[in-house]
Amino acid sequence: MKFEGIYTPAITPLQDNGNIDFAAFAEVLEYLIDAKVHGIIIGGSTGEYYAHSLSERIELIKKAKDVIGGKLPLVVGTGSIRTEESVELAKAAKAVGADAVLIGTPPYALPDEEENARHALAVDRAADLPVMLYNYPGRMNMTMGEHFFQTVTTHSKNFVAIKESSGSTMQLHLLACRFPDIQLSCGWDDMALEFFAWGATSWVCAGSNFLPQEHIALYEACVLEKDFDKGRRIMQAMMPLMDFLEAAGKFVQSIKYGCQLAGLVTGGVRLPLLALNEQQQEELAQIIKTLKHETSLITGQA
Q: Could you tell me the fold of the domain covering 5-226?
């Protein structure tokens, strides 16, 4: 499987009582399909998987496949503390005919690279689908390193891509130079330009939930047009958003509020998270307005 373009880690809307709003979830997916993103990931960090029960996650997998069908690639997140639960999610992904699974490091357990590789291989055996790895030490506190990559790729041909979210240029260089058969996907937004320069052909970006065209524009400039001057200008226009998402300390809340501004039903976030305050909402709304205007001038869509 070739991972190319913008892969959106979809949000999970909630009802007023805190239950998952499956109708609004379907509308989010339809919105992304209409926006012509290149793939959709469910059950990722942006989807608040950590706040969902196993049964809720399996229902989301089924609903996503019902809505997406074969219109776009569907990637199912399998992140969990327990390997057994990740395996169940992998089986559910396989059962509905998902196109790939996303496998990350189990949080809190702090597995070493050998243990982490055994976890990934167990999930892979359950799914037998193309795998996009997910390296996010900021959340998991462990890094997928050279031994991990050598182990999983030696034992299975399914490990074809990685969402690299360490923010480390050293890690980016390791993957690009030592493991060229693992397709690079940008998972650290303010390094998108660097990823594309090092051969990445996809970008897993939460902001594409509500700014799909702007994220697609950067991908097209760098990967399809090979115009990095244009890419840098788009990236410069996007930096205030990226800075806000990281500095505010309310990443999922910000993504959901951006979706609300785009006209989608989001229903807030699950505890223990809390929504943006009024000042943060106003700041984000202005950032989005400016970003859209500046990007439209660069791409000639004004």
A: TIM Barrel (3.20.20)
